[in-house]
Amino acid sequence: MSDPAAPVGPGDPDEPTEGSEPRGADDAYAADSDAPESADPAEVLPPPPSRRAMRRGEEDPAEAEAGQRRVGQSSSLMRELPILVFVALALALLIKTFLVQAFFIPSDSMENTLLQGDRVLVNKFASHFGDVKRGEVVVFRDPGGWLPATNDDGGGNPISKGLKDVFVFVGLLPSSSEKDLIKRVIGVPGDKIACCTNGKVTVNGIELEEPYIYPGDKPSDRQFSVTVPPNRLWVMGDHRSLSADSRVHMTDPGNGTIPADNVVGRAFVLVWPLGRWSTLGVPDTFKRKELDAAAVTTSSIGLVVLVPLALARRRRSGLVVHEHVDA
Predict the structure, then answer these.
(1) How sure is the predictor about 235, in pLDDT bands with cuts at 50, 70 and 90?
(2) What is the pLDDT of residue 30?
(3) Which of 124, 164, 298, 318 has the fewest CB atoms within 10 Å, i.e. is most exposed?
């Protein structure tokens, strides 16, 4: 058993003496000859910490304030976003109800003025505060029996259906359940509409020049003569051979005319597709003053005929009542 190591003293043979090399120095140098030389202490020291690193625990007040401002703006936007969405939907609903609404053309009855799939903007303001004029293209609610019954099964994704209902409600999408039609107004209250004189439709005896009719179509493939009652309108499609308009419903109440109150508004511009963008004006044939002059003449003749008849009927009724009282 070996003794424990003792501290090296001055007389220890392993301790080097002054002026002599330590034992094993050559071996030590030989062992370290391949090792790299010691680097300069200045080079070994790590670089001084950057300002950002020095302030890791202490954030710059300006940067902290900017960060808080960004967080505040983000939270403010999140609070205001629902309000902005609500205001946008409310404005869209207001515009749809009183000013302008977009409508989708589902059929070919107005070709070539309007094609299936076109979208038009309808001025609803004028229908609330003005009279409908001859030659205008109008959207109106089905007076009854003009459109076939449709069944909405309510199927599909409930989320997408709910979103569609919201967009339909505010007027951004057309409704599949609304019973709306689009035709051109040919006659207004008091007008006498007839066909055909020289192969043309007449209004108060004045022949209409109708360049908007579908190429190859006749003004009408059936004969008719109608005086438009008060508060009603006579309407026809531009594609006469495909349009189930007033001519087809002459056996209905109103003799084929529609209630003026059913008019939703006037279609004034075709907005889609963009390549067919155009305004929907009143054709020149309806702007002739003789139409109104003839309407006044027709109305005067009607009054001349109707007033004496009404007076005679009233007088006869009075006589009958008088005789009954005397009896």
Answers:
(1) very high
(2) 40
(3) 318
Catalytic residue among 109, 127, 220, 243: 109
For the chain, which domains are there?
97-148+156-303 (2.10.109.10)
Specify burial of residue 92 (Cβ count, 10 A radius: 0-12, 13-18, 19+): middle
Structure tokens given for 234: 């006579």
Mapping DSSP to helix (H, G, I), strand (E, B) and coil, where does residue 201 land? strand
Average pLDDT of every residue of the chain? 74
241 is catalytic: no
- Quick one: DSSP state of residue 113? T
Q: Is the pLDDT of residue 182 over 80?
A: yes
Q: What gap in Å lies between CA 68 and CA 44, rounded to an integer?
A: 41
Catalytic residue status for 192: no
Task: Specify the DSSP element, H or E, that contains 266.
Answer: strand 263-272
Could you tell me if 174 and 106 are in contact, meaning their C-beta atoms sit under 8 angstroms apart?
no
Q: Please give the structure tokens belonging to residue 219.
A: 């003004």
pLDDT score recorded for residue 197: 86
Give the max Cα distance, the chain.
Answer: 172
pLDDT (0 to 100) of residue 126: 73
211, 214, 242, 245, 270 from 282: Cα distances, Å: 12, 17, 22, 19, 14
**Catalytic residue, candidates 124, 183, 192, 246:** 183
3-state secondary structure at position 105:
coil
The mean-pLDDT minimum among 12-26, 196-210, 261-275 falls in 12-26
